[in-house]
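Example record

One chain of 464 residues, shown exactly as stored in the release files.
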Amino acid sequence: MIQFPRYIYLSVFLFLLIILNFYCKYIQKRHTLLRNFGLLAFFRYFLEGLGPEFRQYLYASDTEEKPFSRTERTDVYKKAKNMDTASAFGSLLNFDSQEIKLKHSFFPNMEKITPFSLYFGEERNLKTSYKITKPVLIAGMSFGSLGQNAVRALSRGAKKAKIPINTGEGGYPKYHLMEQADLIFQIGTAKFGIRKEDGSFDPDKLKVISELEQVKMIEIKFSQGAKPGKGGLLPKEKITAEIAELRNIALGQDVLSPARHRECKDALSTVHFIKDVQEISGLPTGIKFCLGRESELKELFLTMKKENIFPDYISIDGSEGGTGASPKTFMDDLGFPLVEALKITEALSKELHIRDRFKILCAGKLINSGDQVMTLGLGADAIYTARGFLFALGCIQALKCHTNNCPTGITTHSKKLMRGLNIEEKSERIKCYVDHLVNYQYELISALGLKSFSDLKKEHIIHL
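Predicted structure tokens for this chain:
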């Protein structure tokens, strides 16, 4: 074997650096810094790209990461892995005027708590009314936004935990159905799964989906917290031939859902669209929105009351909600945060004497039992969470959901990356996460001195 002197390797390395420097300064035209400074700017961009990883693992404290701190994520990881979640020496939270806490009792309840139960559709006396026995549901995450292994793990975990899972707006729920979980089929503004060739609503397709045994409820999505006033976005990098078929869309281009349902031009047409979906599906039918204008919500409620048409539930998505892809300004600058939106919706529905006509679900960073119980105390009937379940699957908050390069194989369709996500193992983590959430919810109800979830009231909350 020929042995080259070491200086030959060094010379080759230096030659490659010279070539790279020449390319940066004299060939590429996109970056001014590269044209002016060559390799120096190249290393600057290289270090900038590593910045998130350095901050996450070396520099950021346990409580300062966004949108979820390391402490919050670790708590979910431990629950999902069925590990002890106890901590020592005191809370890491800031105890200031922004904190919301629960008021415990001098005399905690030591008797058995009345088991939680909630019926959707009972207000309309539906034969297809749907009962849940745990106050937590898996929020909408579509096949498209998530890869097939993640969808199957979530669905299998939902089946084991005996909770429903929302399909998200990804069209025909092929992989959700595969695992036999109870499903809430979501209708997005693009009508994926129930659309005609021109993108309009196809009632026959909705009827077919509604007759599937596993589909228990329908949800009409008007808007979501991470991008209110804008339709869904699925980047072309994440669109496979299978996704295109299930959604009835084209390959090779970003898919932008309309900002609203074409059927919903005002309050009256919106209420009638809800009625149409209820009659076609024959199932409990809810609506999902992020609150913007209080006056529009009041007009919608007044129209519901006048027409005597109400959804079976309302899902309020706070502006702190998450998504796979959204313009930053829509994520940061629009919509009411969850607590304020819930207070407005609850107060308005009681003022108009219609609170007993529907259930209220809530979503928006509700990944732990304490926040969930506080939200129930503020008037919610049950809780949606999505990112809590992503952490239970193993999400490390890499913030690459829109790139198809999710390192944990969750928000990607790369076979190489999905390979690491074991469906059976992760489904067990979903079940464990739910079990721990619900156990702590019951313990908190006891600590408040209450005997049932229905006893929770606003007076049990501090700092409102």
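Notes: The first helix runs from residue 6 to 27.
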